[in-house]
Design brief:
- With 247 residues, the protein is α/β, with parallel strands linked by helices.
- It is built from eleven helices and eight strands.
- The protein has a five-stranded parallel beta sheet with strand order 4-5-6-7-8. A three-stranded parallel beta sheet has the order 1-2-3.
- Strand 5, helix 7 and strand 6 form a beta-alpha-beta unit.
């Protein structure tokens, strides 16, 4: 069983995807051996109000129960509390670098208090694209890992999942916090997981593919070619996600 914690669906102005329906997305993931996936609306990255895109995503993926919606929230908008009133939310995603606020902004305090009271994990999308491949007139730096460390330690009661981290960021984030987890979608080098596991424990690593921005099979191969023992393999493939997101 593999649970993918980092997938998206929708439209992106700088790239064309061949996955144009929820059924096609589910089929793509299933063909790679992924049984469940947490999915967010990529429209919510650039749309003025992500809540509109969250509602559209829920309707779109309703026929595909293997896809689990994760709403994107902009805490800088007045309506963010309404999005958190939906029952059964597995996680909330924020994208500070695209929505133009800092992790040390006081507006995040009430937001994080509600997350903690509801026991909802927080996902931070560290980047959408590799900075080297971004459209030249829209260069968006990744979220500063040092700010995430400060933020996560200030709200240590809430699990934080950092998506699309680079290897060096992953090591710093995990070693300097107790509540940060990282996905493997942007971590690529020789013997990816065995090397990463020398620096951070398996219970802080999650499987994420960043489909459709990246090739799904690439992330799966990182897992299957790692030749790990059964316990760390299962932790990364699905057990950590099941524990964090109550799947």
């Amino acid at each position: 069983m593999i649970i993918d914690v980092n997938t998206s669906f929708g439209r992106w102005p700088f790239q064309k995807f061949d996955v144009n329906s929820a059924q096609a997305m589910a089929k793509r993931l299933n063909s790679a051996g992924i049984t469940k996936a947490l999915i967010s609306s990529m429209d919510g990255i650039l749309y003025p109000d992500p809540s509109v895109c969250n509602a559209e995503l829920v309707k779109t993926i309703k026929p595909t129960p293997e896809l689990i919606p994760v709403p994107t929230i902009n805490p800088g908008l007045a309506n963010w509390r309404k999005a958190m009133e939906t029952s059964g939310i597995k996680a909330i995603k924020i994208i500070p670098n695209y929505h133009n606020y800092s992790l040390i902004d006081p507006l995040l305090v009430p937001f994080m208090r509600i997350l903690a009271s509801k026991r909802i994990p927080l996902m931070i999308q560290m980047r959408i694209d590799d900075e080297r491949n971004q459209y030249p007139l829209m260069k968006i730096p990744g979220v500063d890992w040092r700010a995430v460390v400060q933020f996560a330690n200030a709200f240590h009661e809430t699990p934080v999942v950092c998506l699309c981290v680079y290897r060096s960021e992953a090591v710093e984030l995990v070693q300097k916090t107790r509540n940060v987890h990282v996905d493997i979608s942007f971590i690529e080098f020789f013997q990816t997981l065995p090397t990463l596991l020398r620096s951070i424990p398996p219970d802080r690593i999650l499987f994420g593919s960043h489909t459709p921005f990246l090739y799904t099979e690439s992330a799966v191969m990182k897992l299957k070619s790692a030749q790990m023992k059964a316990k760390p393999y299962k932790a990364i493939a699905c057990a950590n996600a099941r524990r964090l997101f109550n799947i």
